[in-house]
Design goal:
Layout: H1 6-9, H2 15-36, H3 43-54, H4 60-74, H5 90-103, H6 109-122
Length: 123
């Protein structure tokens, strides 16, 4: 991640960009998660962050941070392309970990419960 800094990825954007990212994340999150499941050591927290990002009651700044990280996660060609075995999601994990650490107090029990239920059904 020499060329791209995590802070640049997670930088605030406008509501229009957040809406665009939210739509893309909704559409591609689960298929990407299934491919990355073995490489993400905090999968339940990641899914809870997904639900937090899509929750309209989550503060805009927090939603923006999470949507930026999730959007980066679903991009197949980022700093380290996701199709590279064993290494493809390492940059994604770093970005996701930074985002989740920054917003952890905003991930509520309802988001965590939704994550547990979704993971029981889908993985």
């Amino acid at each position: 991640m020499d060329d791209v800094k995590i802070g640049e990825i997670l930088a605030p954007t406008g509501e229009r960009e957040n809406s665009r990212r939210a739509e893309n994340v909704r559409r591609r999150f689960w298929q990407t998660l299934k491919r990355a499941a073995r490489q993400v050591p905090f999968i339940e927290e990641l899914v809870a962050g997904y639900y937090c990002a899509l929750d309209r009651q989550t503060p805009t700044r927090v939603r923006g941070i999470l949507l930026a990280a999730l959007f980066y996660f679903i991009l197949p060609l980022d700093t380290i392309p996701d199709f590279i075995a064993a290494f493809g999601f390492t940059d994604d994990v770093a970005v996701l970990a930074a985002a989740l650490n920054a917003v952890r107090p905003h991930i509520k029990p309802v988001h965590r419960e939704a994550a547990r239920q979704a993971l029981e059904k889908s993985l």
